[in-house]
Amino acid sequence: MLLKSALETARVGKRLGVDRLNLHGTGLGEGGLPVEPVEVVTGDMWLRAERTLRRIAELGERHDVTFVLENLNTEVDHPGTPFAKAADCLALVQAVGSPALKLNLDLYHAQIGEGNLAELIRRAAPWIGEVQVADVPGRCEPGTGEVSWPFLARVLADAGYDGTVAMEAFASDPSVEGSDRALDAFRAAFTV
């Protein structure tokens, strides 16, 4: 099912001019919860995940797209999701070793699940294909929580990352003006 979906996504992505396509460690259903929750990831599951991701990377290579494997947090938003931590996603991306499979480093999820974001960025930099941000707590725009986004923007730049940084967040003020302010805060935080 995942391979069929990945193939269709690659075809549609190419048609739309989108060359970065997002993946998760499992299927997510209603409310972002895993379709099949897992409490313990076994060695066999790791091997199957690596084999599947190799096949997805081969699809990406054939269709000239890059699949990005997104880390999630299990503490707040996605309990029971296998391969959720950034460290897990990074290990899988490194094991596959294909330019058609990269890490979608979601810093919101990483802050909740792992912390130490600057070191995580430095360690993962060669394998990052996209970065997503939202502040913690609250999943709102930069500047509404505990993360020092201008500092992390500089860490990303110093690590040589010059790809997409996307805000996957709610505006703390949902009005039109508040949404505009949220975008302004995001741009200010990531202008280095």
Major pleated sheet: 5 strands, parallel
CATH superfamily: Divalent-metal-dependent TIM barrel enzymes
CATH classification class: Alpha Beta
Provide the CATH architecture: Alpha-Beta Barrel
CATH fold description = TIM Barrel
For the CA atoms, what is the radius of gyration? 17 Å
What integer is the average pLDDT?
A: 96
Uncertain parts: none
Total count of strands: 5
* Count, helices: 7
Instruction: Name the overall outline.
Output: globular
Distance between the termini: 41 Å
Descriptive notes:
- With 192 residues, this protein is of the alpha/beta class.
- It has a single domain (2-189), classed as Divalent-metal-dependent TIM barrel enzymes (TIM Barrel), CATH 3.20.20.150.
- 45% of the residues lie in helices and 12% in strands.
- It has seven helices and five strands; from the N terminus they run αβαβαβααβαβα.
- It has helices spanning 2-16, 43-63, 86-96, 107-113, 117-124, 149-158, 176-189; strands at residues 20-23, 66-70, 101-106, 128-133, 165-167.
- A five-stranded parallel beta sheet has the order 1-2-3-4-5.
- α1 runs parallel beside α2 and α2 crosses α3 (86-96).
- The protein is globular.
Task: Write a concise keyword list for the protein shown above.
single chain; 192 residues; alpha/beta; TIM Barrel; 5-stranded parallel beta sheet; 7 helices; 12% strand; globular
